[in-house]
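Structure (tokenized):
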């Protein structure tokens, strides 16, 4: 159509500018152009804009969803941090309690060991004293026997053993008190 217009314009070159214009064709082309624009608006531009609006709404929803997810993950991260902090504090208190219990058990063991050593010391002292008494008694018996034997040989006569024993024990006691 545009080619036809140029051909007509060149054929009518001797006419004036407005005389060469074919107003009927211009009006027809404008009409067809307006109809084309209306059809494009109704069948192409409208659905295209609808799809663009849907796409914009979908993108806005995804952005909102991503923002919600980010906020939720931030909240979860803070919860995890607080739980980790609580776990650290709990573990420190457990370690501190274990240390205190260990110290208390050590003190109990030390006290029990000292008490056992004291008891063993007392038992040993008592046993030593008992054995000493037994040894002293055995030495006295031996001394009495030897004294009786010596006295009987010195005197040359026999004294009753009981009289002799009483005499020697009395002498030993007097010697013990003199110390």
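Design, position by position:
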């Amino acid at each position: 159509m545009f080619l036809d217009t140029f051909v007509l314009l060149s054929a009518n070159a001797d006419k004036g500018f407005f005389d060469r214009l074919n107003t009927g064709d211009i009006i027809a082309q404008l009409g067809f152009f307006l109809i084309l624009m209306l059809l494009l608006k109704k069948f192409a531009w409208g659905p295209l804009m609808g799809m663009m609006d849907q796409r914009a709404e979908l993108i806005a929803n995804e952005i909102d969803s991503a923002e919600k997810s980010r906020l939720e993950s931030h909240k979860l991260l803070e919860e995890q941090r607080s739980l980790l902090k609580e776990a650290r504090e709990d573990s420190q208190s457990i370690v501190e309690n274990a240390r205190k219990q260990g110290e208390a058990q050590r003190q109990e063991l030390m006290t029990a060991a000292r008490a056992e050593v004291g008891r063993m010391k007392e038992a040993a002292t008592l046993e030593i004293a008992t054995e000493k008494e037994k040894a002293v008694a055995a030495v006295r018996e031996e001394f009495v026997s030897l004294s009786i034997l010596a006295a009987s040989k010195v005197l040359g006569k026999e004294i009753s053993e009981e009289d002799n024993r009483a005499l020697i024990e009395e002498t030993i006691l007097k010697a013990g008190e003199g110390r």
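Reviewer-requested clarification: The mean pLDDT is 82. The helical segments are 2-11, 17-20, 23-155, 161-178.
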